[in-house]
Amino acid sequence: MSEPAKQEFEIEIDVAFEGPVFVISVAAQLSGMHPQTLRQYDRLGLVQPGRSAGGGRRYSARDVVLLREISRLSQEEGVNLAGIKQIIELTKRVRDLEEQIEELVGELRQARREAAEAQAAMPYRGELVPLSQTVLPVWRPRGR
């Protein structure tokens, strides 16, 4: 008798959801790794899963996507674990900076809008012209 063929399942994961949802065995299966590999990656700080009340690891959809990327970098690109850790840290830093830039650009746009509204509300719109300090006009009454 022949063994039944193993079925491969492709699961689409919403990576915006970050709540801990998968136990280690399911996360390992979804990422195509051995559970011991996931434990090692946790110890090395490559992936930091949530924890249950009893201390068990709980992997989010984002963690599973990250595990797949770690596997790809390691297997296809030949990057060692130290390099992968650096890539992950730098990628996170870039994402944080992009969010900060987006926030600052929003604040700048708001400040410009407020400045334009304040300028439009001014009753007098003349220009201020600085006087030169070397020229001082003097008024003298006409001869009496």
What's the topology here?
Layout: E1 22-23, H1 24-31, H2 35-44, E2 50-51, E3 57-59, H3 61-75, H4 81-120
Antiparallel strand pairs: 1-3, 2-3
Helix pairs in contact: 1-2, 1-3
Task: Kindly report how far apart the N and C termini lie.
Answer: 132 Å
| Low confidence ranges | 1-14
Helix content: 40-55%
Order of helices and strands: EHHEEHH
Mean pLDDT: 83
Radius of gyration from CA coordinates: 32 Å
Lateral arrangement of strands in the main beta sheet: 1-3-2
Globally, the shape reads rod-shaped
- Strand fraction: under 5%
Count of extended strands:
3
Main beta-sheet strand count, sense and barrel state: 3 strands, antiparallel
Q: What structural class do the secondary elements suggest?
A: mainly alpha
Query: How many separate helices?
Result: 4
Work out the oligomeric state of the chains in this entry: single chain
